[in-house]
Specification:
Blueprint: H1 8-32, E1 44-48, H2 56-65, E2 68-71, H3 77-80, H4 90-101, E3 105-113, H5 119-123, H6 129-145, E4 152-157, H7 171-176, H8 180-192, E5 197-202, H9 209-224, E6 231-234, E7 237-239, H10 246-255, E8 260-269, H11 280-299, E9 306-311, H12 343-353
Parallel strand pairs: 1-2, 1-9, 2-3, 3-4, 4-5, 5-6, 6-8, 7-8, 8-9
Helix pairs in contact: 6-8, 10-11, 11-12
Bound molecules: ligand 9MR.
Length: 355
């Protein structure tokens, strides 16, 4: 209906209310959007960090939608390990404090990762038993400190070479053995917190079938050696060009071992804008379809295998991808920068509420 203005005063009155509208409009869809966590019994997770949590609007949106958090940085080896070997838990404790105050479950990441090789450990490179003792001490101390407070840990992160052809070389593998460092990590973690759900976590399992095979063969070998692996984390940093069905197939392969499954770092990249002239509308539709498929695959798991579904960031502006060259404008998450839900949010919400 076209509104007619009977007087100049009406016209200005309408113009004024339009000018005032953005704040009200900005709130309206958010009020209508159901909290993601209210749509399912499965824990809904989001990665976050102490800096982002200082913004009250950010924290409110996070708490409204998610029941579980993963610290993006605070519980990793670099921030915890001093150059002299002492362990510093300031950030990790603060993170846990936020979670406790807000009754959030915490999934902690990560104990052993090739990307966090603190200078202290590099200084012990080649020192045999001294290196092994420091490794053991780190794992027992860190996992022990949060015993009973975290639901689970990524014990080993990204153990397979990027292209999936072989295992990754790292400070840990060269000092402790190609697979022994993983067996040991699971052993110490279980010893320090017998009830924590212990994960081996990897990326690109949907995109690279070969990597999936290398990864699953590794998990089977580790289990045969007695490693206490409770779950598989599939990071699911996917993009809009991932072939349809890839996430479903991957989930089926991973679930076949019977372990718990964590979709641990979900985001759906739009790719590089400068190399793709499809419309934003088309890209957002593809993004919704990919996210829907991941949620569908996860929700089709037996309830006992559904550990959690975690987004790697809250609003688009929070994504790690914007730090990569050419990706400064990527929009891989479920909320726009002003906190409004995106089409991807609605696709996920739709699938979550369908039992
Ligand atoms: O998003 C995380 C970023 O804030 C950290 O600086 C970085 C290094 O610790 O790790 C990022 O998270 C990574 C995750 O732990 C493992 N998978 C890839 C994620 C993005 O790099």
């Amino acid at each position: 209906m076209i509104k007619k203005f009977s007087s100049r005063r009406d016209f200005f009155g309408a113009a004024l209310s339009l000018a005032a509208a953005p704040a009200a409009l900005a709130d309206a869809p958010r009020r209508d959007a159901p909290p993601l966590k209210s749509l399912t019994n499965a824990p809904m997770g989001c990665s976050t960090n102490l800096v982002a949590l200082k913004d009250p609007a950010y924290a409110a949106l996070l708490l409204r939608n998610f029941s579980q958090v993963t610290p993006e940085y605070e519980m990793k080896m670099n921030p915890i390990t001093h150059t002299d070997g002492r362990l510093n838990f300031t950030l990790a404790d603060n993170f846990m404090g936020f979670a406790r105050q807000n009754r959030l479950r915490v999934h902690a990441t990560t104990l052993v990762w090739y990307k966090h090789q603190p200078p202290y450990f590099m200084g012990l490179d080649g020192k045999g038993q001294v290196f092994a003792d420091a490794y053991r001490n780190y794992l027992l101390t860190v996992v022990g400190r949060y015993r009973g407070q975290v639901v689970g840990w990524d014990v080993v992160n990204e153990p397979v070479w990027t292209d999936g052809t072989r295992l990754r070389d790292s400070l840990w593998s060269s000092n402790l053995g190609a697979e022994d460092y993983m067996v040991l990590a699971f052993e110490y973690a279980k010893q320090a917190d017998p009830n924590a759900v212990l994960f081996i976590n990897e990326f690109d399992l949907e995109r690279l079938p070969r990597k999936r095979a290398t990864f699953l063969n590794l998990v089977e070998r580790l289990l045969k050696r007695g490693a206490k692996i409770d779950g598989i984390g599939t990071q699911s940093h996917v993009n809009i060009n991932l072939p349809q069905g890839a996430s479903t197939l991957t989930m089926r392969d991973l679930a076949a071992l019977g372990l718990k499954i964590h979709v641990s770092e979900l985001d759906v990249s739009l790719g590089r804008a400068d190399r793709d002239n499809r419309s934003m509308d088309d890209k957002l539709k593809l993004q919704s379809a990919k996210a829907w498929e991941v949620v569908d695959a996860f929700m089709n798991l037996p309830a006992s295998q559904r550990y959690a579904l975690t987004m790697w960031g809250l609003m688009d502006k929070n994504t790690w991808l914007r730090q990569l060259p050419g990706r400064e404008h990527d929009e891989p998450l479920a909320f726009y920068d002003d906190g409004q839900p995106k089409p991807m949010f609605w696709a996920m919400a739709d699938r979550l509420k369908t039992r």
